[in-house]
Write the structure tokens for this entry.
Amino acid sequence: MPTSNREPYIVRSVVNASQVLGSFQSPGEVLRLRDVVQRTGFGKGLCFRLLHTLHHCGLLEKVDESRYRVVSEMRRRRRYRIGYAGQGQDSSFPREVHASLQRAAEREDVELIVIDNRYQPKIALRNAEHLIKERVDLVIEFQTDEAVAPAIASKYLEANVPLIAIDIPHPGATYFGANNYQAGLLAGRYLGQWARSRWAGEVGEVLLLELARAGTLVHARMGGVRTGLREMLHDSIDACPVVSLDGDGQFKTSLEKVRRHVRETKARHVLVAAANDPSALGAARAFQEAGRADACAVVGQNAEPDARAELREPRTPLIASVGFFPERYGDGLIKLALDILGHRQTPPALFIRHQLITTENVDHFYPNDSLLGPVTPAPTTPRTDRPSPRSGPTPLRPA
């Protein structure tokens, strides 16, 4: 809904009253004055006057001297239509985000209009036009290309459609997702700790698998990796060669690029940090194919189901993945969307909390993976024997 700053005929006091009514989010919910202040962001005096007026008009009733509830369900919000432009990459992370969004939308009686970006910037741009024509109330955008983000955001801004951007910032959008530097820091610390405990700190090479199209913010993961390695290995890591490859966040691309690199590198011990799990799994397969699985340690990002299945393999070079918990995204995204549509105060960015998922703790954090049925792993080649990595370093807690 347009604000009074843009629409001179809007009566601000009525808008304020509607926001107070909108702060009651469930049937029969009872709120105190301070609850309404917190949810609306209004001052205490204004909230008190609005509550008193709405009670006088018969829209609110007093439960006791300090608590209120809505008299009639007539005030319940209309059913919102929220557009979701999904990333579309064929991996478990976007699938879990999509599934969690559907569950949360159903619980909150939100109509979710789903469209697939197919991991292509031109399609994402066309999808923005489509969702605007659908007259959705708000859009949740999940697309990876930083270069097209300004054009997508501009379309929604012109149409006065609020925008939430998952993991990749879009100008003017509310950001929801990864704290990229912290996620990289967790990965770097664990890789450095692994090298100290298993290789006495002797590292011949650091291999970074980037996701260039995602832009500077996702690139911050690799900055965090370097800092974490330096914390654990100190000056010895500064003399170590660092190789960056663009795996494009995809298994096949990463597999092919790391295959070529493995044929060229002579490094005895290689630490691999990947921008996401598909790239991490591609790197792991490349080292296995070359019979050098015992020469590397790989950490991914996202802790997707296929990576968690890989962590349970006794001879995998994948030693950890930083958890993003996409199965929880839906609840946070729908709550944020409803807060925006209800004109409640929201922060410019909401970061998820990361947790390192390792061979040692994967069953603790995901004990029900077996109930989901077998996860089809990425294509494999015959593996060479290597000792089980399960005696690795103790997992570090998030910073």
Summary: The CA atoms of residues 199 and 336 lie 45 Å apart. Residues 180-199 form the longest helix (20 residues). The chain has three domains: 12-75, 81-177+328-351, 180-324+354-391. Confidence is low (pLDDT under 50) at residues 376-399.
